[in-house]
Amino acid sequence: MATVLIVDDDAALRDALGEVVGDCGHTARPAPSGEAALAILANEAVDAMVLDLRMPGLDGMEVLRRVRDRFTTLPVTVLTAHATAANTIEAMRLGAFDHLTKPVGRAALTQALNGMLALNRGGETPGGATPSPAEGLIGVCEAMRAVQKTIGMLVDSDATVLITGETGTGKEVVARALHDHGSRAARPFVAVNCAAIPSELMESELFGHVKGAFTGATADRMGAFRQADGGTLFLDEIGDMDLALQAKILRALQERSVTPIGGKPMAVDVRVVAATHRDLRQRVSEGGFREDLFYRLHVVPIHLPPLRERRADILPLVESFLAQAGNKTGNKTLDADAAARLVAYRWPGNVRELRNVVERLAVLVRGPVITAADIGFLEGAGARSMPDSAERGLEEDLPAAVARLEESMIRRALERCAGNRAEAARLLGIHRPLLYAKMKRYGLEASEERTAPVSNSDASVSEQ
């Protein structure tokens, strides 16, 4: 039996979390504040910690920093109702086991508890200053949340990272986040587009040259590796690099040194992040990419999904881009029809195309509201990619669409559970009292449980 410290200023949520901990066979130790949690840690043995991020007084991030300084092996899962790329990355950088968004499902919390208690942490995780917000990493879908967490775990590592994804998905944004949030943030970030520089010039661009090494070499050139010394070198579109140069990149990665054209080897301290929109495994099989370099780059892979697979992120991204453009053009908002059109569009150019469209709208739309007519230029091959039922939902305002979806899910859960409300609540991942309230709201309260009542332990940890 383990002791799990639960830190949250919401008494009801503490109780709900404690119930799940108890059902897992462990002892819950509640703490109403960050200060109380640190006092408990100083005097009692604790095996794991569940920590709310937003609390009055000492907030969760500061508590996590102090825990890392004083109790380096204690596994901590952070909870927040307001997850952002910045606080996700920072929590994971500080060594959080996981970063969960409220409402927290029972299954997710149980999985986190089991993982924390099975974890054998061996090293100290350093603290650090809070980085600036990662605006380009806005995302609430599971795939982007996973990317944010991975970045947080990698920022203070020197491991080589390979970022894959379609053109325009934000691969350089991820590379910059790895740099800006980590221990190399004060040193240079140097980006080189391997597809944009002719192969005959690429060697000098990367490794530099000495004066007189070849015709036209009128002065020494450092090259990107040496320019990035102490920092991060981002090799974009590395899948398009010439085979002969791939061998030299491999040697530089293995030996941590570079040889300028006409010069002698020089040691460099560089964290390399590479990116490509190509399938490198296929390129290897076709003979267009070195297998040994692929495995040297593929130490930690990060894949970015296309925007059409993360539709929940489209409107938050639009709002962010409009806010950025508003400094010059005045604040603008979308009406419901315009929002529906943007969400329904296929976005073949991904986030880059979305940013360009928003910037165009911000400049050309004279009034404060962007309408569907203003984005008529998007009509075409990419304009339809959602079923009619989904588009009908997008024609509603957000509360109406959410209510319609919620009612449909509750009806389906009750049908699947033969009217058993406790089972339906568990299937939906919410408390039974919350299910009852929603059933009453949608006129579903006539449904009756057909089995005996089940104990409160069947409830999930949800809306708090």
TrEMBL record:
Boundaries of every Sigma-54 factor interaction domain copy: 137-363
This protein's record includes keyword Cytoplasm: no
GO biological process assignments: phosphorelay signal transduction system; regulation of DNA-templated transcription
SUPFAM superfamilies attached to this UniProt entry: CheY-like (SSF52172), Homeodomain-like (SSF46689), P-loop containing nucleoside triphosphate hydrolases (SSF52540)
SMART domains: AAA, REC
Region Disordered, residue ranges: 445-464
UniProt keyword terms in alphabetical order: Activator, ATP-binding, DNA-binding, Nucleotide-binding, Phosphoprotein, Transcription, Transcription regulation, Two-component regulatory system
Ranges annotated as biased composition (Polar residues): 453-464
Identification of the protein by name: DNA-binding NtrC family response regulator
